[in-house]
Amino acid sequence: MRPDIRPECMTDYMEPASLRALQLSRLQDTIRRCYDHVALFRRRMDERGLAPADIRSLDDLARLPFTDKNDLRDTYPYGLFAEPMSHVVRIHASSGTTGKPIVVGYTQEDLDVWSEVVLRAFCAAGLDEHDVLQNAYGYGLFTGGLGAHCGGERLGLTVIPISGGNTERQLLVMKDFGVTAICCTPSYFIHLIERIKETGHSFDQLKLRAGIFGAEPWTDAMRAYIQRESGIKAFDIYGLSEIIGPGVAIECDKHDGLHLFEDHFYPEIVDPATGALLPDGTEGELVITTLTKKAFPMVRYRTHDITALMPGRCACGRTLRRIRRIGSRCDDMMILRGVNIFPSQIETALLSVEKTLPHYQIHLTRKAGLDQMDVRVEVTKEMFGDRVSELETMRRRLAHAIEHITGLRIPVILAEPNTIARSEGKARRIIDHRDEPETRPPQPTTP
Ligand code: DLL
Known about the structure:
Blueprint lengths: L15 H22 L1 H9 L21 H6 L15 E5 L7 E5 L1 H17 L7 E4 L7 H13 L2 E3 L6 H10 L4 E4 L1 H13 L11 E5 L5 H11 L2 E8 L4 E7 L6 E3 L4 E6 L13 E7 L10 E7 L1 E2 L11 E2 L4 E2 L4 E3 L2 E3 L1 H9 L4 E12 L2 E10 L1 H5 L2 H19 L5 E4 L14 E3 L15
Parallel strand pairs: 3-4, 3-5, 5-6, 6-7, 18-21, 19-20
Antiparallel strand pairs: 1-2, 7-8, 8-9, 9-14, 10-11, 11-12, 12-15, 13-14, 16-17, 18-19
Helix pairs in contact: 1-2, 4-5, 6-7, 7-8, 9-11
The chain binds 5'-O-[hydroxy(phenylacetyl)phosphoryl]adenosine.
């Protein structure tokens, strides 16, 4: 046993064979409980002629039916709970894309597991009891705030439950309370960086050294921007309400993929179109089965998030498998002139050109039955002070960078600083006008 590893984190280093055995027994237990307590699951198993006893190996998981967001909607609000409400001590919900929210529940045991995985995530990011954590994820029905809060307290961090928004107060707290680490969405942190500079402050005056960013996709280019502008180390944390909240996976200090807490969440990668299992290293949709959740177990949940299971072991020594950073969701894919485009490609292209700011939006419209796209991006104040010809050169360089990555010529509109809406939580990158009758979005002021 390594004395430098906290007892809660020992599983991160477990021998793979022992981990697989643990996963199997937990999987069998989960399937049994779902079969006994969740009507929809039992019906689907029966339809396939499957009984819990048929799950004899981890490979047998692939015989089980998937669960997806529609199942959660159809059984709204509590139809997939596997425990009586008297055992459920907390509810969270995520807004979902349409209509009713996705509702998730936790027993006390579930909350303990959640705190444990967040604790392990924060440890992997190098935090310890000497850290002061500004928790700027939203508190409330969103899982970010309370998830990070409870895990942080469990690790012994000094947690400041500031929640999202109120940027001026965030800056005051960051400076006066000796904050060393922050949790928020990467897009909100970029807004904080901007405000710190605008108010004449600098990161040298702060103790901040680490950021745990997630809840939305962000690229390596965005990480490079954050680290360069703020001097802190930026870690990617992943999670989703349906599985537990934040703390499903996190980067360690090698920043080479996210370690997934496999003793609680079993990952598979499938072809998003056919559902067929894909081998390690191949990109596809992440499917997760919870192994220990009591109130709201999920079997083969289709996350819609695109990633790959990374082969090989991480240099940090953890044996937990890693997923590649989530670049996008299947449902974020845009098809333009027959080419698949993801917002992450646009982000990478934009940030590869100097003097752009990481504030951008992708507008989708429809003209004569054909989908059109344009990209708006803010450029620096200095840039707007420059001659029109230089702005035109800049616009061309950006369009060229996008063409280089996507293969498509997409119109780029340069916007002045602070003209694209800032978000306190998840950024809205795609603005879809295609349902509006033959529209062009309003044009921002450009030279
Ligand atoms: O966003 C949980 C969370 C809170 C994760 C705080 C990390 C930090 P939901 O609101 O249910 O839960 O949204 C889940 O957000 O399926 C992904 O599409 C996306 N997402 C979350 N983390 C990342 C990330 C929380 N690190 C959905 N990279 C997921 C890319 C992410 N996408």
